[in-house]
Amino acid sequence: MGIFGFFNREKKETLDKGLEKTKKSVFDKLARAIAGKDKVDDEVLDNLEEVLITSDVGVDTTLKIIERIEERVARDKYVSTSELNQILRDEIVALLTENNSADNDSWDLPNDHRPYVILVVGVNGVGKTTTIGKLAWQFKEAGKKVYLGAADTFRAAAVEQLCIWGERVGVPVVKQQMGSDPASVAYDTLASAKANNADVVIIDTAGRLHNKVNLMNELKKVKDVMKKVLPAAPDEVLLVLDGSTGQNAFEQARQFSAVTQISSLAVTKLDGTAKGGVVVGISDQLKVPVKYIGLGEGMRDLQLFNRREFVDSLFGEK
After folding, report:
1. Is the Cα dihedral 99, 100, 105, 111 positive or negative?
2. pLDDT number for residue 1
3. CB 240 within 8 A of CB 213
4. Which residues lie across from 117 on neighbouring strands?
């Protein structure tokens, strides 16, 4: 069984509750879009376009979905408005599938090497350090030996917060003095983790975007130094985004993808917003899979993303 399999029992209930605001918003808008209509026509499609855009799916992804529905209407000649929910479900699952967002019920670490190294990026305030803490707890609960690296050395609060999470979870945190070279912290973290046969290393990084050149150079240096300890590192570059910011999350994702290669996404704070559609749009536009979603403050409220469960919760069970 994969290392997160033990969370499955509570997952659906948490997911349904976490997406409740988005679901209500989408359903209310969808009901208005098809009011008084029996079949999907140009007016319904125009209204649906507005529903998706105002649900923070994003313009480009919305146009892609509308185009696919238009092709289906043209092919089938007649599509009733009662079928629209299922059609939307199908198209969103298809988009997420194309972007390699898998149906994750569990996540198995690769067997060819240890430790597995996750480099975490994202601007300040998106829940980056909290996400790292929750990941560390879940790995530890699954019996894995975890090390954290406090490579955001530009903010004392960032190092302090990660250390608090380390104490709370019961995992070691490697840190240096404020203003130290982040690459040096990353090196020390990997060296210590390797020497102590750790299974997982999670490294926090600075969340500055005001100077892209400096950020790009810093992340490149961190990666280069990591490879001196572990040639395959990092195994994953995880971008954390605040789902409640909607289109701002899109922009952050674009900026980070411009300065470093992102391999997976974590979208947080979905429980407090009606903008859950941003999960679909960001994944589609970046062609990067969503791996985790944050649905609350609890340790178990950070979930592995499952596209089918997500869509079922968003549009209701079939």
Report:
1. negative
2. 43
3. no
4. 201
Q: What is the DSSP letter of 105?
A: S
Residue 257 confidence (pLDDT): 86
DSSP 187-220: HHHHHHHHHTT-SEEEEE-----S-HHHHHHHHH
Nearest to 198 by CA among 141, 86, 113: 113
Chain length of the chain: 318
Tell me if the pTM is above 0.85. yes
- Per the CB < 8 A criterion, the answer to whether 146 and 139 are in contact is yes
Q: Tell me, what's the pLDDT at 209?
A: 63
Per-residue pLDDT reduced to its tens digit, 99-139:
765 555 555 677 777 899 999 999 888 989 999 999 999 99
Question: How does strand 302-304 pair with strand 290-294?
Answer: antiparallel
- Residues in CB range of 289: below 8 A, 6 or more apart: 99, 100, 101, 102, 264, 265, 283, 305
CA 149 distance to own-chain centroid: 20
The DSSP annotation for 232-271 comes to T--SEEEEEEEGGGTHHHHHHHHHHHHHS---EEEEE-GG
Kindly report, residue by residue over 204-262, the tens digit of the pLDDT: 998 776 567 788 888 889 999 999 999 999 999 999 999 888 888 888 888 888 888 99
